[in-house]
Amino acid sequence: MFPTNTTRRSFVRNALLTTSALTLPDFSAAQRRDLPDVAPSATQEILVRSDVDIATIRPELHGHFAEHLGSCIYGGLWVGHGSPIPNTNGFRNDAIEYLKALGIPVLRWPGGCFADDYHWRDGIGPAKDRPHTVNTNWGNVIEDNSFGTHEFMELCHMIGAHPYLAGNVGSASPQEMRDWVEYCNFPAGSTLSDMRVRNGAREPFAVKYWGVGNESWGCGGNMRPSYYGELYRRYSTYLRNFGSTRLFLIASGPSGDDIRWTRELLDVCANHMPAGLSMHYYEGGPAGASHFTPQQATDQFNIFHRVESAIQHQREVIDGYANGSRTALILDEWGVWDAIDKHDEETRGKLWQQSTMRSAIAAGLGLNLFNRQADKLYMCNIAQIMNVLQSLLLTDGPEGKVTVRTTTYHAFMLFKEHRGNTSVVTRNSDSSQQAVSVSASRSTSQGLLVSLVNPSPTQTVTARCTLAGWTGTRATGSILHSENLNDFNSFEQPDKLHPVAFSPRVESGKLIAELPPLSMATIKVEA
Ligand code: AHR
Predict the structure, then answer these.
(1) CB 113 near ligand 1, within 6 Å
(2) Is the Cβ atom of 214 under 6 angstroms away from ligand 1?
(3) Nearest CA to ligand 1 atom 2
(4) Are the beta carbons of 393 and 348 closer than 8 angstroms?
(5) Which of 166, 350, 454, 497 would bridge 211 by S-S if both were Cys, CB 3.0 to 4.6 A apart?
(6) Tens digits of per-residue pLDDT, 257-284?
(7) What is the arithmetic mean of pLDDT over 167-181?
(8) Does the CB atom of residue 383 touch ligand 1 within 6 A?
């Protein structure tokens, strides 16, 4: 089920220790988190072991999340039928086009915290008959339920995403969630599946990914891990394959690297291991998104070393259980969570947050580490896809006519070509926390792809990459960069920041890239 095994992981570890062509110290993330905060060097020696595979980079590592929160759904992706904003069946046209261009492998919905107070039956049938409920998690706003299961499935269909439904464990029942599975996945003939057909969907939705609660340690019920473990066992008993789609059940995992949660939960579920365990890890920011100082940016970037350690650590813990290696680790919510501007919240929606050059660097650090840890991760969903936290798309609130592709959108675009490739081992000899972050992948169609992120707000870095096992002759790529860490794509200048062509040198088989401060590049090295 989960394409990873400890044998391959130990192979990669051993390959690093024994076959390295260069004598470089082992700067694994686990060690890096305790490193002193020293200035990075102007020239950094990087090793790319194109001949040492980690794992396939699952497209789902570039997954997304959409919650009924602020203007993510209402006024964001969904403007409704008859809106003056250009739309198709109620979906904002430019947003859909941008998401299609990027490719959205998987989309998680309806929350977040909202999921554990959501009752799916409220969101089906004629929209005029749907109840008006209160979104108690996000400002007590009226939820008219005009966006429900069918609208979400239509959105997924339009953008080519696999649907991932987060079920309500906190305030509902096993029966309610079981019925949602039947409604979505049973072909026809039962009352629930016939209801789906009457509501316009003859074919089952074939939903594979089901979250069994969200943050059950917090907004999802404030449970203790063992109690949630018992509930997980009970729910999962009734969440069966109602059609030909084999369900992939995802248990609510830890906040950050909370080992106690993982252990106590899995102790209860040891003979009943979930297919996936979700972990949430936000990278907090002390300032408003467009008001960071260089030091605040650096502090936030440094959190990514801890995220990488947490992934390694959680993976080890899960692997310690019998059949644990079959349980996928899912970084279900991640991204920068900066100080939210009150005025933005009031005028544009709850948790509306600008995405700056600093946010793009943060996205690049995350996407690089997902490549490096591709053997330990199954899916990663950034929070959130539109108008909430580290968004890919922003509008000027629900009335905003223009949709802006944020710097984070462009960061994802820079990593798109890695999807489906084989991640290979890389290492930077500079051990400072602000050293260039690197990942690389290989494929027959793409050749060798190297992604480099220079998080230093001040230092230009010459990255000299030794390409072990690869004879490179020519390098081409794209770079995203701004000297101003608080720069962003505004509604007035929506295309101010975007990747531009980048042609680093290849000299004596080495890839040599000049990386200005706060820049990220993906480079294709042709043989
Ligand atoms: O993404 C915003 C919120 O953060 C989600 O609703 C919740 O799961 C997390 O705490």
Answers:
(1) yes
(2) yes
(3) 112
(4) no
(5) 166
(6) 999 999 999 999 999 999 999 999 999 9
(7) 98
(8) yes
